[in-house]
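subagent[fold] <- orchestrator: predict structure for attached chain, return tokens only, no commentary.
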Amino acid sequence: MALRRRALVGVLAALVGCTTAPAPGPFRVSEGRVAMGTVLQITLVVEDPARGRMLLDALFADAQRIESVLTTWNETSPTAAFNRAAGRGPQPVPPLLEEALRASVRGAAATDGAFDVTVGPLVRLWREAARAGRWPVAAELEAARARVGIDRLRLTPEGASLDAGMAVDFGGLGKGLALDRLGRRLEDESVHAALLDFGGSSWLARGAPPDGRGWRVLIASRAGRRHIVELRDESLSVSESLGESWEIAGRRVGHVIDPRTGLPVEHTAIAAVRAPNGEEAEMWSTALLVLSPARGLERIRAHPGLEAWMLDGEGVRHSTPGFAAEALLTPATETTR
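subagent[fold] -> orchestrator:
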């Protein structure tokens, strides 16, 4: 009987211990869903997995709403409607579209016009050229170039306007703006450790995972070069000149268009930019593919808080000192200039 009582006391003590011991944690919750033409992978570090999964749903819903405003692939989107209204004077636009347009003006000024969302007519020209399998004639190119220019995007208290025939395209900015908006939700929800990954090309890192100093992400080029970068409380964007490409009359050209010349980028390059926010990281990684490495890094150095890294087609690395210090894997065939 004494043994039975001692056993019962032991069981009760264990049960009391179970009810008073703190729940183990923190937990990682992670999921990937299609968003903005790629897969958005979100990893959160939370104390309550159920709350984390609810927040994942909210973040993905936010991403879908942002895409529904900024896309040009859906004719019912506010951006598509704004493009159709070009030449009709100031148009009322929703706050997110206005935010994107204002960011676009800032980006064009910072990059000396290498980044310009009014490149839409040129993007359309080259997509049609790829479908037709022929190089545009000079008159077609000049006509498209005449409809490009950030100075003809106007923002007034009455609304936003474009000159007739113009169109905006947020392909080089949308994911960065989305990451910034999702990051603000994480801040409001007091989530201090998270990694958001748009298709292995745009990231937002908050804090660090429980087992590391920062979030380790992989930069991989189509040429097989692979680098690991550790991120903490910052954004990273990577663009590759031939990441999406077309073959036109036997020539391989990239989807990145130089708005100053109207021509697509034909050289092989990959550019990565670390920045305090997704907006700057995204637009600068695109602009660097248009600018020469020397000019691009010169412009980057003029903007505190930005770090950049580039690989050209010959495997030569060009970078600012702060970024180079974080490149953890370097192929043996790579050289630095």
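orchestrator: received. Logging for downstream: The first strand starts at residue 27 and ends at 35. Residues 1-22, 325-329 have pLDDT under 50 and may be disordered.
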